[in-house]
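Recall the central idea of this unit: under ordinary conditions, the amino acid sequence of a chain determines the structure it adopts. In this exercise we apply that idea directly, starting from the sequence alone.
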Amino acid sequence: MDQESIVYGCIKDAAAARDELLRRRTNRAVMLALPKADDWPFLCQEMFAIPRLEVGLGNYQTEVMHFGASYKAVEYEWDQWIAKFEDLLSKMYWVSATVHLETELSGTHTFTWDSESDSHIPGSEAMRVRCEWSHHQ
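Accordingly, the structure predicted from this sequence is:
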């Protein structure tokens, strides 16, 4: 049996921001610009729950854009996956992002990105990442 890797997480943005509709439109357009899953890209539209444009539906203070996918041993190409994800983040509005990588051989890794200001603005390179690793038997 092949090694399976599970990748899942969420990108959070401020739902109560003054420019909420612009933020939603921008984030939605970035996710819709991702390729379809047909070509096995690292990131694809189908792995994201793409938010609706309507403001005030289902969110209290935070817009949560969640995602998930199953891969064949993606940890061997993890640097490329992270580069694609950070490219996606660079084009979006967000406050924080979390990615969980579950692997059969090397445990679970949690990666967290935080904006260096209150909120990341598209085109800004101000983001910090940290990684935590845990291995459960």
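The chain is about 20% helix and 35% strand.
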